[in-house]
């Protein structure tokens, strides 16, 4: 029997009992875990396929059992990845909150597995017997709030744009056709797979969008040149003076047709995807959002450029404006003045945007600033009795600060993709 994920001990006991009662226990040779608690999207990328995780970990209305269940799911997924690699990682985690909880659970799970016979780490351990040193991978765990801007900032490279704009899921994306005939006829969206086997995707996934558009044109030009060459080869077959040579060239041309057809299919796919992206970029002004947010994150942004987009007359959806406002708030090293904050919120409300997510972020920043100030004031008391106890208390408050202001956290995740 092979199980995609670990079966609890109670489940194993129930299975064994049922097998004995049915008289089929003799047909079971062994029971194995395949450790498939994750989805492998690329050679160096996997996904735990957990939905709504940020809200579950930060919303105070969520029950403790739901939080524990999510922590267990994350732990199982990471353990499955480690078991597949056959590697015992060195685990480092951000102190406090979910990251530390997952790290502790994963550490215990790996240690328990190492005590069992035929555990998934045995093969790798035997390979290192007699070796001078054993190299172990490093696994770093962070809470999402460690870099909140990463899931809010607008993208400009191909793969993140496809994720954000076209809602790519499990390496598949649906693209609606804008042609009048398809719109009138109500044709279904075309579904495309984007993975390493696609040479154009593999070469351009990390390229900026203008470069991708240029590459699409370049590949199309190459295809047209190849077709002209094939047509020229076939026309030579009509020349009786060069029959032998033309026959050989015609055979080569025919053999190249399948490859040309596949190239045309890839070109058409990325032409349609790029066209859909370009339409959203023009409509929502995503190039402006990206440029302004990049300037903000390197300390070069200014309020007028931000306000020009946040105003009701600015391009972009209500969600685009909220994301920009949050990035603007997070990137302000000296903080946003009350007057500027009110202007930003007023512009968002005038645009019909919900400001609950921005309010949540501002409260979190205010609380974190207060805690840091208190911790700095206590730095001089390192040798004083009770210092360690006070620091621990403050850390606990910081770790669970999100719980105090999580009432509107669900709005921050609506429509926002966690870019991997």
In short:
The chain is 58% helix and 6% strand. The chain contains 17 helices and eight strands.
Structure explained in plain terms:
This protein has 420 residues and is mostly helical. Helices cover 58% and strands 6% of the residues. It contains 17 helices and 8 strands. The chain has helices at 9-22, 53-58, 64-85, 97-114, 122-127, 158-166, 180-185, 199-204, 209-235, 243-284, 286-297, 303-310, 318-331, 338-350, 356-377, 387-399, 401-404; strands at 2-3, 32-33, 39-42, 45-47, 90-93, 138-141, 172-175, 190-193. The strands form 4 sheets. Strands 1-2 form a two-stranded parallel ribbon. Helix 1 (9-22) links the parallel strand 1 (2-3) and strand 2. Helix 3 crosses helix 4 (97-114). The longest helix is centred in the middle third of the chain and has 42 residues, at 243-284. The radius of gyration is 28 Å and the shape is flat. The two termini are 34 Å apart. Mean pLDDT is 82; it is low at 387-420.
């Amino acid at each position: 029997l092979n199980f995609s994920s670990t079966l609890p001990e109670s489940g194993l006991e129930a299975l064994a009992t049922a097998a004995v009662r049915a008289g089929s226990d003799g047909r079971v040779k062994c029971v194995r875990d395949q450790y498939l608690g994750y989805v492998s999207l690329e050679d160096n990328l996997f996904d735990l396929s957990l939905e709504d995780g940020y809200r579950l970990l930060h919303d105070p209305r969520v029950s403790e059992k739901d939080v524990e269940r999510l922590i267990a799911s994350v732990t199982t997924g990471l353990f499955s990845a480690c078991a597949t690699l056959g590697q015992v990682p060195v685990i480092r985690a951000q102190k406090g909150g979910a990251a530390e909880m997952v790290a502790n659970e994963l550490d215990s799970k790996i240690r328990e597995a190492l005590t069992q016979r035929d555990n998934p780490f045995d093969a790798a351990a035997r390979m290192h017997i007699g070796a001078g040193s054993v190299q172990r991978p490093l696994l770093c765990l962070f809470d999402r709030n460690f870099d909140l801007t990463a899931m809010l900032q607008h993208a400009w490279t191909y793969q993140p744009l496809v994720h954000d704009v076209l809602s790519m899921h499990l390496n598949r994306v649906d693209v609606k056709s804008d042609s009048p005939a398809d719109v009138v006829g109500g044709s279904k969206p075309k579904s495309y797979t984007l993975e390493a086997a696609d040479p154009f995707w593999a070469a351009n996934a990390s390229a900026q969008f203008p470069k991708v558009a240029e590459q699409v044109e370049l590949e199309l030009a190459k295809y047209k040149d190849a077709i002209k060459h094939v047509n020229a080869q076939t026309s030579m077959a009509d020349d009786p003076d060069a029959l032998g040579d033309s026959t050989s060239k015609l055979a080569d041309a025919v053999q190249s047709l399948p490859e040309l057809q596949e190239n045309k299919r890839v070109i058409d796919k990325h032409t349609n995807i790029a066209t859909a992206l370009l339409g959203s970029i023009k409509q929502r002004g995503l190039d402006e959002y990206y440029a302004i947010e990049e300037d903000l994150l390197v300390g070069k942004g200014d309020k007028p450029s931000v306000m020009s987009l946040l105003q009701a007359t600015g391009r972009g959806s209500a969600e685009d404006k909220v994301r920009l406002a949050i990035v603007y708030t997070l990137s302000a090293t000296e903080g946003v003045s009350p007057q500027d904050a009110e202007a930003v919120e007023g512009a968002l409300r005038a645009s019909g945007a919900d400001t609950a997510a921005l309010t949540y972020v501002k409260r979190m920043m205010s609380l974190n600033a207060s805690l840091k100030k208190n911790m700095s004031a206590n730095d001089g008391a390192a040798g004083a009795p009770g210092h360690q106890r006070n620091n621990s208390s403050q850390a606990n408050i910081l770790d669970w600060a999100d719980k105090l202001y999580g009432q509107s956290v669900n709005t921050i995740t609506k429509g926002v993709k966690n870019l991997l």
